[in-house]
Amino acid sequence: MLALFACYVFSAAEAHPKFTYKKCTKGGCTPVSAFIVHDKHIGQVSDRKDTAIDYEKDVGVTVSGGTVSQKLVNTYNGQKVIGSRLYVLNADEKNYEIFKLTGKEFTYTVEMKEIQCGVNAALYTCEMPAAGKPPYGAAYGSGYCDGNCVDGSCCPEFDIPGGFFSCNGLHCSPCSTPTNGCDTSGCGYNPYRDSQDKTFWAVGGKVDVSRAVTVVTQFVATGTTLTEIKRKYVQGGKVIEAAKSLSDKFCNYNGGTRTMANMGASFNRGHVLVFSLWDGDGMSWLDGGNAGSCTSYNVRQVEATSPNLKVTWSDVRFGDIDSTY
């Protein structure tokens, strides 16, 4: 009797750009070899399934050592694509690199002087499944989820911004479980809004966004319980501390999903690192009104006049507190 078996046949394996970050202790930092993979969706154009892509040609992404650049306007299969969303794969190229942030420190350097109103260049983490989702897995960028349940997939999210215009801060979106009950509004600190410090993150400001800046985030804990999230910036050899940090007191968290400990439980399970660049006319929540200095938006004009606009991330470091900068 002939048995018939159905199987899924993948196309040629994708050539993921090589990427290096560093793990640090008080004794120093050690390079870690990894890879970059694009999300399985290419902008709003296509679910690429298992189709391999040319990172520079198709999505405007270039990677060299520990530096990642994302260009705003790209072309994939003859159609315009805006920005990109990238993840870090570990050395086996089968699973996402998992960062367990509680009690640790995460640092990177960003160059974002080209970013304009309505353009969001963001670096953040989400509790995505390490293996992605079948049948494509992490190797083709599947399994995305976040605190706003984009594409219907929910999971805890932590925003470590630093690459957008006139606004910078911290923001966490804990969830009651790894996959639902997310606090979509979350809790955040924005110096422009919350401290009325409108020159903190600005061209020529205390943190001068016309120059590269190193962004340091500390996930302070008692044992394995997250208690506070602090932010520092390093520029020109000077350490600049944010005026406020995230804590239960600052966030008015009072139990259940809304606690630092709950967010820390998600960090203990592990998060995937996300590099993102995109735009939109409805960005006043990000960089207008009480959040930033932008007063008008015309991203179609930005796309037409500055198609090569880019953000560059580099020198990602992860390790013990006060060991990465």
CATH superfamily of the domain at 95-320: Glycoside hydrolase, family 7, domain
Cα distance, first to last residue?
66 Å
Relative helix content: 10-25%
Instruction: Please write the string of helix (H) and strand (E) elements.
Output: EEEEHEEEEEEEEEEEHEEEEEEHHEHHE
Q: Give the CA-based shape.
A: globular
Give the second-level CATH assignment, the architecture of the domain at 95-320: Distorted Sandwich
Structural class: mainly beta
Radius of gyration: 19 Å
> Which stretches are low in confidence, meaning pLDDT under 50 for 5 or more residues running?
1-9
CATH topology of the domain at 95-320: 1,4-Beta-D-Glucan Cellobiohydrolase I, Chain A
CATH class of the domain at 95-320: Mainly Beta
Largest sheet composition: 17 strands, mixed
Report what the structure shows.
This protein is mainly β and 325 residues long. The protein has a domain at 95-320: 1,4-Beta-D-Glucan Cellobiohydrolase I, Chain A (Distorted Sandwich), CATH 2.70.100. It has helices at residues 55-59, 191-194, 248-251, 260-269, 284-287, 299-305; strands at 18-25, 28-38, 41-42, 46-47, 61-64, 67-71, 73-76, 79-82, 84-89, 104-111, 119-126, 157-159, 163-164, 170-173, 187-189, 201-202, 207-208, 213-222, 225-235, 238-241, 246-247, 272-279, 310-320. It has a 17-stranded mixed β-sheet that branches. It has a two-stranded antiparallel sheet with strand order 3-4. Strands 7-8 form a two-stranded antiparallel ribbon. Strand 5 (61-64) and strand 6 (67-71) form a beta hairpin. The termini are far apart.
